[in-house]
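Build the 3D complex.
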Amino acid sequence: MLQDQIALVTGASRGIGAAIAQALGRNGAVVIGTATSEAGAEQITQALQAAGIKGQGLALDVNNTEQIDAVIDQIAKSYGDIGILVNNAGITRDTLLMRMKEDDWDAVISTNLSSVYRLSQAVMRPMMKARQGRIISISSIVGHTGNAGQVNYAAAKAGVSGFTKSLAAELGSRGVTVNCVAPGFIDTDMTRELPEKVRDDLLAKIPLGKLGHVDDIAAAVVFLASPSAAYITGETLHVNGGMYMA
Amino acid sequence: MSDIEQRVKKIVSEQLGANEADVKNESSFVDDLGADSLDTVELVMALEEEFDCEIPDEEAEKITTVQQAIDYVSANLK
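Done.
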């Protein structure tokens, strides 16, 4: 379905990003996954090889524009132009606003929102020339519902949604679609850190009665990347078991 | 026609999908050749690539016709 397409997935060493990398690869894409450390990059390379997927892991700090340019250059030389960008890298620095340090705010905005600006800008030119391309950002249910203790994370994720709609309007005439996938409560390292009481309360709010799996998110990304989704742009696809119905 | 003029016109016609014969010196990208805002940005980027130069945004804004593009490139080519 995605034969010979080149996909770049940020934050691909574990969790949702790792599942997205695998799913895109299973559908025929060449996958380049990034991680913040060399060890993470190596882990991605091995996971891709083990699954027989063409591509590799690369170390990248999505806060660093020079590194981004270098990585895009390297991908262009080794594989070709990126046709699918998945902005997945993200961090949390949860705390109540009363206690939040400016550094907690800045780090989350930079990694979760400004990185989407940096990476989208870095890959859009070849997409515009090719008159096709997919930019898919992983936002969050929290960007739509809000969540106590996550003003930074929720603001960044809501920002990604506004960014997506605006860029979709800019690039529509060039055949490039720009969309979000908004996960609900997915079973990952990030959500395993939550206290049990919080987890139980959240579960009670999910009509489907269980946590989401990373593959549920990956499937939504594959769909948006596929030719079947060519007429969908500026949209957020919520994958949350009914926890929030847009 | 000078070499620069020829190269500029070729790029304009390629970028805007216009017939080369329709690309005249006095042609306005937007009014005569049907460019939208994204087209004009792409056009400037294509000129930068072709002539290996960087056109600052405030200069790029002033380039709205084929002649203005030729003049800018002629004046600033290394």
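Chain A touches chain B through six residues (CB under 8 Å).
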